[in-house]
Specification:
With 395 residues, the protein is an alpha/beta fold. It has three domains: 64 residues, PUA domain (Archaeosine Trna-guanine Transglycosylase, Chain: A, domain 4), CATH 2.30.130; 106 residues, RNA methyltransferase domain (HRMD) like (Transcription Regulator spoIIAA); 187 residues, Rossmann fold (3-Layer(aba) Sandwich). The strands form four sheets. Strands 16-15-14-17-18-20-19 form a seven-stranded mixed β-sheet, with helices on both faces. A six-stranded mixed β-sheet has the order 2-6-5-4-1-3. The radius of gyration is 23 Å and the shape is globular.
């Protein structure tokens, strides 16, 4: 079995900078590192020691990144094939416990949340999509493919590593088929609903798997009502509602996504005459539309991708929610989501407060929902919680 550790080098922290590691936070930033002793290559697994010589952790090292070490283990244990196979197996066992019936698409590996920093693996029936965004996982690419094939027997494995963090890690974007023959699009099943997913050209890994539970909530809530789905992509929320008898309007700026959404409706035996697919900018559409809806979904892309953009992004969230609140019938519902890491729960609720005040509507919080169980995050790593959703009743 391969051993992925460099035993001739080590990371030494500055004096009194080990507290976060003692508290099991998995990131070591550049300001905490005093020196790296010995010869090494970026991406190798090195041990981490306190200034006093106490062993603290092992992790991928990359001095180019602000996160110099991404921790793999807080124990002095071998980091070899058996180590990674166990981590993958633990991740798979967790999903077997929580993935609902009639569903064959979910996140199999969620980076730090599964103690596999810099790696995401999404499962779409017998296809796997891999995202690599740490130097350490990049060094292990061929072994990752071997482990996935050994444990999960996929028909095809696609890599789609295109996150902004790649440049910070010194990596190039990659989009390619690593194994098997990919015939697009693949077909998946979620809660009994069929979707076509384009793994190579679609957003993220092809589908927003983290909204599975919210789609089911909206499907039940919008039964027999009028739904407006903003930033609708390939029609997930619309389809979940339409299957429950809702009439839907899907607004999306991408014509290709709208065409795939219509194919998804046909795939599930739904008549398009009861539903509208509008290719438009959501902000402009909400400002100009005159009709009202019983249920509105706002699931925009991340408005804040850097800390310096928080104020500008907050204005965008406030404006879009104010416009939506003004177009809901009294007693209607709004599902408002943010996947911006820098917009925390407290700030997002304040944004919604401002939107409600400016809309001059009474608003109740019915529920607050984070990401589903196949997107876990460590209690020691709150940065791993990125999805925030408020279900609101608007009077």
């Amino acid at each position: 079995m391969g051993d992925f550790e460099n035993k001739k080098a080590r990371v030494v922290l500055n004096k009194a900078r080990e507290r976060s590691l003692v508290n099991r936070h998995p990131w070591i930033f550049s300001g905490a590192v005093d020196r790296i002793e010995g010869e090494y290559e970026p991406g190798e697994v090195l041990p981490v020691y306190s200034a006093e010589g106490q062993f603290l952790a092992k992790g991928f090292v990359n001095p180019r990144s602000q996160i110099v070490v991404r921790v793999l283990s807080f124990r002095d244990e071998p980091v070899d094939d058996a180590f990674f196979l166990q981590r993958f197996q633990q991740a798979a066992d967790l999903r077997r416990r929580f993935i609902p019936p009639q569903t064959n698409a979910y996140r199999l590996v969620h980076s730090d949340g599964d103690l596999l920093p810099g790696l995401i693996v999404d499962k779409y029936d017998r296809a796997l999509v891999v995202q690599i965004f740490s130097r350490g996982m990049d060094r292990l690419r061929s072994r990752i493919l071997d482990w996935l094939r050994q444990l999960f027997d996929p028909a095809v494995v696609v890599e789609k590593s295109e996150a902004r963090v790649l440049a910070e890690e010194g990596l190039e974007p990659r989009r390619e088929v690593l194994f098997g023959e990919y015939r697009q699009p693949v077909q998946i099943l979620e809660a009994g609903i069929r979707y076509e997913v384009d793994l190579l050209e679609g957003q993220k890994t092809g589908f927003f798997l983290d909204q599975r539970e919210n789609r089911q909530r909206i499907g039940e809530l919008a039964a027999g009502k009028r739904l407006l789905n903003c930033f609708s992509y390939t029609g997930g929320f619309s389809l979940a509602a339409a299957k429950q008898g809702a009439s839907t309007v899907s607004v999306e700026i991408s014509e290709a996504a709208q065409q795939l959404a219509q194919r998804n409706f046909r795939l599930n035996g739904l008549e398009l005459s009861q539903h509208r697919f509008i290719t438009a900018d959501v902000f402009e559409y909400l400002r100009e539309m005159e009709e009202e809806f019983d249920v509105i979904v706002l699931d925009p892309p991340a408005f804040v991708k850097k800390k310096i953009h928080i104020q500008r992004g907050a204005r965008g969230y406030k404006d879009i929610n104010r416009l939506a609140m003004q177009k809901i019938v009294p007693g209607g519902y709004l599902l408002s989501c943010s996947c911006s890491h820098y917009i925390n729960w407290d700030l997002f609720q304040k944004i919604l407060f401002s939107a409600a005040a400016e809309s001059q509507r009474e608003v109740q919080v019915i529920g607050k929902f984070s990401q589903p169980p196949d997107h876990p995050f460590s209690i020691y790593h709150p940065e791993g919680e990125y999805l925030k959703s408020f279900l609101l009743k608007v009077w």
